[in-house]
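Protocol step 6 of 9: fold each sequence in the batch and record its C-alpha cells directly after the sequence line. For illustration, a two-sequence batch is reproduced in full.

Sequence one:
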Amino acid sequence: MADVAEDTFTAYPLRGHKDGVLCVATGPVGKKEKNWREERPLLLSGSEDSTVRLWDLKTRKPTRCILGCFSKNPVNSVAFTPGDPNRIYAAAGNKIFSFDLRKTSILLTKPETILEFNKEEISQVAMHRKGKFLASCDDSGEIQVIDFRGREPKKLKTLKGHSNICSTVQFRPQAPWHLVSGSMEAKDAISHWDFNRPKLLTTYSNQFEQERDEQEKKRAKNKGKKLNEPVIPETRIVNPPFVSSLSFSHDGKILAAGLGSGHVGVYNAKACETLGAFKAHAMGVSSVEFPTFGNDLKDGLLLTAGSDKSLAMWQGVGGDMGAVKLKVRVGLPEKPNWIATSSFGGAMVAVADCSATIKCCYFRQ
C-alpha cells in the first residue's frame, strides 16, 4: 500500500463534542454575519452526546451548538440545504429536526420544525441537490421522501423494498427523480428507485468474489503438501458485505458503495449495471465519498474510510476496474464513522470517529 509523504499531508483536530462523533457534513459556503462579503466554509457534526455543532473551518472553532432538543438520542445524520447555508437538518431517533442559522444565538435549543414520518430510528438523511426533497432511511428498511415545495413539508412517498435495516440513501445527481438506497441485506442490498412513480428500477449486487491473487496464493501453498500430510484450511473471518455508505460521482453516472467485506462496489447508475469491486480495506468500509475537490470525472478520485483505521484515496474509479489505483493511505487513531470533503484549503477530508474529536486531514495535491 502507498504511504502518504509528510510534505503532502497535514491534520488538525476540532474539539468540542463530549462523546463519539457519528456524522459530519460540509455545506454550501456561508457569509460571516459582520462582513457578509467574506465567505466562510462550514462543517456540521452530530454526536453520541446528543448535540450538533457547526464549525467554521477558517477559524477552526464552533460557531453554533444545538442541544437539549434531541431527547438524549444520538444524532445519527446531519445535512445542509443546497443553496441555503442557513437551513440545516439533523436526525435523532425517528425524528428530523430543522434549524435556522440566521438566529444569532450561539446555543440553539428549539428547532424550527420537527418531522416525524419514519417509524424507527433514522440511519441517514440526504438532501436533493435543488433542496426540494429530503430522503430519510431507517431501521424498518423503509425510505421516506419528504416534499418541501409547498408551504409546509409533507410526505411525498414511502419506498418499501428492503427486508433489513436501510443504512444509507443518496439522491442521484442529474436525474431529478432518482435515488439509491443501501441496506444490511446479504445480497442485492442496493436499490435504485424512481421515487416519483414510485418504482424500483433495479437492484445491484453487494456480493463479490474473493480476489484472484488470494486464491492463487492458497492453491500454491497447498500444492506443495505431501499426499499423506493433512492440509490445514485457513480460518479467516469474513464480514458480510452489508452496505454502509453510498456516493455518486458529480455527473451522477458512477455509484460507489462501501461494503462490510472491505470492498467498494462500483456501478454505472446511468446504465443500471455493475462494473465490479476492489478491495479497499482489511476490514469493513464505513464511508465512501467522491470528493468535492479534484476532478472525479477525469481522475476518478474516491475517498474511503475503513474499520482498519485508515483513510484512503483512490483514482481510476468508474473506468476499467483493473486500473483502479491506490493514490495514498493514511492511518487513523480510531475507527472512522463518517467522512466529508471540502475544497477549502485545496483538499480537505473531515473524519468523524469513535472519539469526541473530528480530524481534518489536508492533502496538498
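Sequence two, same batch, same settings:
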Amino acid sequence: MSAQPQQLNLSAGFRNIPFATRSILIAVVTLFLFHKVSELTLPQSSTSEDGGITKPDLAAAYRSSYARFFTVSVESIWWPWTYVTAGLFERNVVELVVNGGAFLVFGKYLEHAWSSREFVKFAVLVNLSTYLLVATALFIEYALTLNIKFLYTTANGLSGLLFGFLVAFKQMVPEHTVSVFKIVSVRVKYIPSLAIGAYIILFLVGLINAQLFIILSGTLTSWVYIRFFKQQDGIRGDRSETFSFASFFPEILHPFIAPVSNATFQLFVALRLLPPLAVPVLPTTSAAMSSTIYGDLNKSQNLLGSDTADAERRRALALRALDKRLAQNTSSPAVVPPQNASNSPEMAVQSTT
C-alpha cells in the first residue's frame, strides 16, 4: 500500500519541475543513454604498449566514436548541430548526477523568476555561444602548438551553462550568503570569481584543458547578455557598478581592469556590437526632480529582481539628494502665482544645480 503513494509523490515532484528545465533534463539523460548504448557496438581502439591511444590512431579513434556527434572539437564545423548538443551531453554517471542536479536546482529558481521563454532564450544563447568560442579556442591552441591532440580534443557538458547561471545569480541576489557545510560562508557575488580561480589553477597544473575554455566562455557570454541585452521590467541590461566586468576581479585590481574594460566597451560600441549607454534626461523643476527620483527608486527595486543591500544604498542616496534639493528650494524666495492662473502663461521655476 505504501509503494503507490511514493510513486505518486515522485510523479507529482517531476511534474512540479518547470517545463523548460524538465525538457532540458530529459534531453541530457536521453543523450547520455544513447551514447552508452552506442559504445557497446564500437570496436576497441588501437592502443600502444602503455595502454594509451597511439598518435596515428588518434584521428581514427575520434572518428569511429559516436561521441563526435555530441561533442565539440575543431572538426565540429562538419557537424554543426554539435554546438547545441555538446552543452547537453555528459559522458559519465558522476558528471550526469552532479551537473544534472545543479541544473535542476538553478533551473527551477531562474525559470520561476524569469519565465520559461526567457529561460530557454538564455540557455540556448549561452550554450551555443559557449561552444562556438570553445571550438575557436581549441583551434587557436592547435595553431600555436601544432600539437595534434588539440585538434581532436573534445568538449562537452553542462558546466558552461551552470556558470552562466552563477552569473545570473550574481546579478539577481549578489548579497545573499551561501554556507558550505556550515563551515564557510560566501556571498553569491563572489562565487563565479572563486570558481573560475579554481579552474585556472587546475589548468595551470595540467589537470584540465577544454574545461577552462567552457566555463570562461559560459561566464563571458552570460555576462554580456545580462549586462547589455536582457530585458527585465522594461529595463534593458544592468549597467550597475556592482555588475561591471571589473566586479569579477579582486578590488585591488579594479583600477587596472576598469580602464581596459571601458576602452573595450567603447570599441564594441563604435563597431555597433554593443548598445551605447543611455543618456539620462535631467529634470528642470522640483516636481520633475521628485518624480524622477522616485521613479528611479522603483526601477532600482526591480533592477536586480530582489531587495538587495545595493538597492537599499541607491534608495538612501536618492532620498538624501531629494531632501537636499527640497531644502534648497525652501530657502529660496517663493514665486507667487497670479490670481487668475487660467489666463496666465505657465511659469517654470528653474532649479539650482
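Proceed to step 7 once all outputs are recorded. Observation for sequence two: The beta strands are 177-180, 184-187, 231-232, 235-236.
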